[in-house]
Amino acid sequence: MSTISIPKPQKPWKATPRQRVETGGILLVSLLLAILLVAVSPLKGKLGYVGAFVVIYLIIDYAVVRFNHGKSAGVDAFFRGLVTMAIGVAVLPIISIITAVVVRGYKGLHLSLFTTDMQNAAFTDENLSAGGLKHAIIGSILIVATALVISLPIGILTAIYMTEIRGRFTRPIKFLVQSMSGVPSIVAGLFILAAVVYPLTKFYSSFEGSLALAILMIPTIARTAEEVLLLIPQDLRESGVALGGTQWRTVQQIVLPAARSGLVTALILGVARVAGETAPVVLLTGGGDGTQWNIFKGPMGTLPTYIWKAFGSGTEASISRAWTGILVLLVIVLVLFGLARFLGGRKVK
Amino acid sequence: MSSVQVSERPALPEKRQLTTKPRFSDKVFRGVVTGGGLSSLLILGMIFIFLLYQGFSILHSQGLHFITTSDWNAAVDDNNVPIPSQSHFGIAAMLIGTLVCATIAVAIAVPISVFTALFLTFYAPSSVKKIMVTLVDLMAAFPSILYGLWGFFVLMPSAVYWAKLLNKFFGWIPFFSMQAPVFDRSPFVAGVVLSIMIIPIVTSIAREIFGQTPLDRIQAAYALGSTRWGMIRAVAFPYARSGIVGGAMLGLGRAMGETVAVYTVLNIVYQINWHVLLGAGGNVASMILMKFGEATPLEIKALMAAGLILFLVTLIVNSLADVIVSKSGKSGR
Amino acid sequence: MTDESENPEMETHVQPSSLAGIASAAEAKKAPGSSALGVGLEARNIHAWFGDKLALRDVSLDFWAGTVTALIGPSGCGKSTFIRTLNRMHEFIPTAAMAGEVLLNGTDIYAPGVDVTQIRLKVGMVFQKPNPFPSMTIAENVLAGLKLANLKVENKDDLLQECLERAGLWNEVKDRLNAHGGSLSGGQQQRLCIARSLAVRPQVLLMDEPCSALDPGSTLKVEETISHLSSSMTIIIVTHNMQQAARVSDYTAFFLSDGGPGELVEVGHTNEIFSRPKDTRTENYVTGRFG
Predict the structure, then answer these.
(1) For residues A270 and A266, what is the distance between their CA atoms, to the nearest angstrom?
(2) Is A194's Cβ below 8 Å from some Cβ in B?
(3) Do A218 and B141 touch (CB under 8 A)?
(4) Angle C138-148/C186-198 helices, nearest 10 degrees?
(5) Taking CB atoms and an 8 Å limit, are A75 and C150 in contact across chains?
(6) What does the pLDDT look like over A120-151, one tens digit per residue?
C-alpha cells in the first residue's frame, strides 16, 4: 500500500485575496466619497470627515454584501462595521491623551526639574526651567509609600480571609470590598478630615493624605490579591495541611510564596490607582512648594497638587508646567502599569 | 402481642459535628486575618458615622430641604462668626447636576463599551485583542486630573462643536435648547469627559460577561445558519443583558463620584440647570472641592453632610450594580 | 408521509464519481427505499489540523440521501472532528485548518465565495448536550433558525407543529408552547433541538453523540425520531454506543487512531460491519476487545 502524501493544511474560511481587494475597494470608495461630500456640503472639520466616512462606508458595505449574499449577511456586515468603529472610538482618546501630554509637556522638561523645588520659583515664571518637581516627586513617593504601608497588610489580610479562611463573612466581605472600591475619592478625603484632622491633629500633614489614599488602595489590593490567591491550586494547600502543618504555616510558607509575584502586581496596581489621585491630597496635604521630608508635619507637595496648583494659576507658563507635571506622572503610571502587566504574566484571555 | 412486626428502618443518625481543637498559632492567625477581613466593614461604617457626626447638625436643622432646595447661604455676622439660624444649605442643584453629568456619561459610554466588548470578544483576532485590551485597561489607570486637563484643553473645542451641532439639529428637544450661546464648560462637556473615563470599566465588565457566553449556545446558533450578528442578538445579548445593566450602573457610580475631572471642565453654577449644553452645571463632589477652600466652620459641616449624601448615593448605586453583575454570572440567562 | 417531496432537487442527482475502494460499501448497495435520492453529501480526502497537529487523515465518505450513517470508533479517533468539517463548524477553533473537499449537491462547501450560513442552513447539526436557547420559549426555539437566518415562512404555526411532530415532541409540548425551553427534560430538550434544526429544512442532519447526555428512555425516543426522519433526509450520527449504531443506522463507518491522526478504517452496511467486518481492527472493536 502506498502512503498517501499529506496535502498542505488550508484555511478556506479566511478571506480570499479577491475579498480583501473588495474590502479595500469599498474603503477607498467610501473615503473618496466622504472627501467629496465634505467638499460640496456644509459639513466641515474632522468630525465631518469621520462622520461622512463612517456613514458612507457602512451604507456601501451593507449594500454590496446584501446584493451578493442577501439581507442577513448585509445586516451582519453593517454591524461588523459598526463594532469595528466602536473600538476606534474607544481607543482614540488614549492616543489623543498621550499625544497631548507629550506634545504639551515636553517643553517644560529640563534637567533641574528633578533637583529643584518651587520654594524660590513661581508657577507663572515665564522661564520654564526655573523651579522643579523635586518636592512633588519626593512628596508623592512618601505619601504613596506611607499609604502602602497601611493598606498592603489590610488588603492582603482581606484577600487571605476571602481565600483561605472562607468563613461565613466571605461573601459579605467580598461585597463590601467591591462597594469600597466605589467610594468617591473626595469622600475618603472628607472622612479623614472628619475623623482625624478636626478631632485630633487640627493641622494638615501628608500622613492624613496617606490615610485617605490607603482607603482607596485597600479594595484594589484586596481584589487583585484575592484573584492571585485563588489561582494557587487547592492541592498545594491540602498537601501543606496533610503534612501536619498548621494553617498559618501553610499560608505563610506555601501559599504566599507561591503567589509572590502576583502579590507584587497587586501592590503595583494599588500604587498606580492612587499615584495620580488629586482630590484627597488637595484637601489634606496642604500642597506645599518646598521639599518636605516629615510626613507628620506641615504641608507637603505632591505631583497631583503641583499640577493642580499650576493649572489653577492659569497663565500660559503655569499651564505649561502643569502639562510637564502630567507628563512625569503619566510616565510613572505607564511604568507601573507595564510592570504590573509584566509580573502579572499577561492575564489577557 | 403479635410476634411479627415489620421493623422500621432505623432512623438516620445525627450528623456528627466535625470539630478540632485549633492550635494556638492558628487561633491567632484566624483572628488576625478575620480582623483584617472585617476592616472594609469597619472603614465603610466609620465613614458613615464620622460624616454623619460632622454633618448631623446641618442635616437636622435643614431637614429634607438639604436635598430639595438649592440655597447655599452661610450667613455670618460682622465678626465673621457664622449664624446657623440664618444659614440655609441645600444641594438639590448639585445632586441634579451630578445625575445629569453621570447620565450623559453613561448614555455615551455604554453603547461604545458594549460594541467595543463585542468586537474584542467575537470579532478581533487574538493579536489585535491583546493590544486593545491592554490599551483599554491602561485607560482605566490614567489619573483623573489627566482626564481633566485633557478634557479642558483638547476635548473641549471639539465637544463645543458637537454641542453646537446638537443644538442646531435637536434644539427643539428641551434638554438641547439654549437661552444664551455659552457652550463652554457645560454638563455636556463634563459628561463626554466622564464617559471616556468610565468606558474602561464598562467595557471590561461587558467583555467578561460576553466571554462567558456558553459555547454550546453559540455553536447552536451558528449551526442554524446564523450570521455572527444574528448569533450575538439571539445568544450573547440575552445572556449578557443584566450584566451589562450592572456594568452601566457601576459606570454611573464612578461618574457620580468623580471630582477633579468634573471640577476642571465644568463651570460650577449653583442653580438647577436641565439644559445640558449650557455652560453651567454642578456635581456634588466638585462642589465640595470648590467650596472647601474658603469655607466657614459651619459650611464645612454642610459640606460633610453633602459628602455623606454623595457617599450613600454612590454606595447604593455601586452595591446594586455589584449584585446585578454577580447574579448575572451565575444564573446563565 | 409526504416528506420525500420536500427536496425535489435531490432526485435528479447523478451518481457520484467512484472513489476507489474507500467508499466502496456505500456504493455497493443502497438501503431500500432510498434508491431515488442519490448521494446527499460527499466528503473527499478530508484532512483536519489543530495547529500543527494532524487530527484527521484522508477521509473520503459518501452519504446517501434517505439513509442514516453512523460514525463509530474510540474517543479521539477524529469522528467528531470529521462531522464538524461537514457543515464548517470546524473553523470555529482558531488554530484549525483543513484540506480536501465536501460536496453538497455537487458543489464544494469550502469553495471561495460560498456563503457559510447557507451551508449551515442545508446541513443542520444537533450537539452532544441539549442546548436550547434558554431565553426563548419552546415555540421560539423551534423557529429560532428562521429568525436567525431571516427566512420568511407563510404559516409559522403549521411549520411549528410539523417540526415538533417530526421530532416526536408535539404531543408532549403542544399545550405549553410558550413555556421556556429550559423547563423540558433533557431528552425533550434534545428533541426540541432536533425540531429546531428541522425548521430551516436542512438536507442533511449531523448528530454529534446526541444521546450521550440522555437517560435510556430519552435515548429511545430520540432514536425513534431518527428513524422517522431518515426517510426524508441524510442523517450522519456520531456515537460511542455500538448498540445504538446497530439500531438506527443503515451504514456504519469505523474510525480509528493509532495515536496519530484519526483515519477511516472501514465503511459498509451496518449489519455487515457488525457481523462480517473485513478489517480485524473493526472486528476487535465491534466485539468489544478494546475501545
Answers:
(1) 6
(2) yes
(3) no
(4) 30
(5) yes
(6) 788 888 787 888 888 899 999 999 999 999 99
DSSP string covering B135-173, please? Answer: HHHHHHHS-HHHHHHHIIIIIHHHHHHHHHHHHHHHTTS
Among residues A227, A248, A255, which one has the least CA distance to residue A159? Answer: A227
Q: Please give the grid coordinates belonging to residue B124.
A: 478581533
Q: Which residues of A touch C98 (CB under 8 A)?
A: 9-12
| C-alpha cell belonging to residue B94 | 448639585
| Partner-chain contact A304 B145, CB within 8 Å | yes
- Is the CATH number of domain A134-343 2.30.30.230? no
Indicate whether this complex's ipTM tops 0.90. no
Looking at the DSSP bridge assignments, the partners of residue C41 are C63, C104
Q: Does B150 touch chain A (CB under 8 A)?
A: yes
Average pLDDT across chain A, whole number: 86
pLDDT in tens, C75-100: 888 899 999 999 899 988 888 899 99
Give CA–CA dist A127/A131, Å, rounded. 9
* Domain residue ranges in chain C: 3-7+37-131+203-286
Note if the pTM is more than 0.90. no
Q: Considering only the top CATH level, what class is B95-281+315-331?
A: mainly alpha
Rounded CA separation A216/A46 (Å): 39
Query: Which stretches does DSSP call E strand in chain C?
Result: 39-50, 53-64, 68-72, 96-104, 107-108, 123-126, 204-208, 234-238, 251-257, 262-269
- Is residue A348 over pLDDT 60? no
Torsion of CA B188, B193, B195, B196, to 10 degrees: 150
User: Where in chain A are the domains?
Assistant: 17-107, 134-343
Contacts of C236 in chain B (CB under 8 A): none
* CATH class of the region C3-7+37-131+203-286: alpha beta
Closest C-alpha among A187, A215, A208, A285 to residue B51: A187
